[in-house]
Write a structure and sequence with these properties.
Layout: H1 2-9, H2 12-40, H3 48-64
Helix pairs in contact: 2-3
Length: 65
């Protein structure tokens, strides 16, 4: 596959940086989007918090393996 060959041709430090950015984005972007949606709806009830708690728990469990 072209993508795999391209990935393996990158220096290891570039792979590490890209992997770190991807992991950080996977933990941050859903949180930011849900909080934004919660604020836009001007809800007195923070409905995004339980969803975020479950997502972050699953995220943590996946990456702790």
């Amino acid at each position: 596959m072209i993508i795999e060959r391209l990935w393996l041709s990158l220096p290891i430090f570039v792979q590490a940086i890209l992997a770190g950015i991807t992991m950080a984005a996977a933990g941050t972007l859903p949180w930011a989007g849900l909080i934004s949606a919660n604020i836009r709806r001007e809800s007195a009830l923070p409905w995004a918090v339980p969803i975020l708690a479950v997502y972050l728990w699953l995220y943590w469990r996946y990456f702790v393996r």
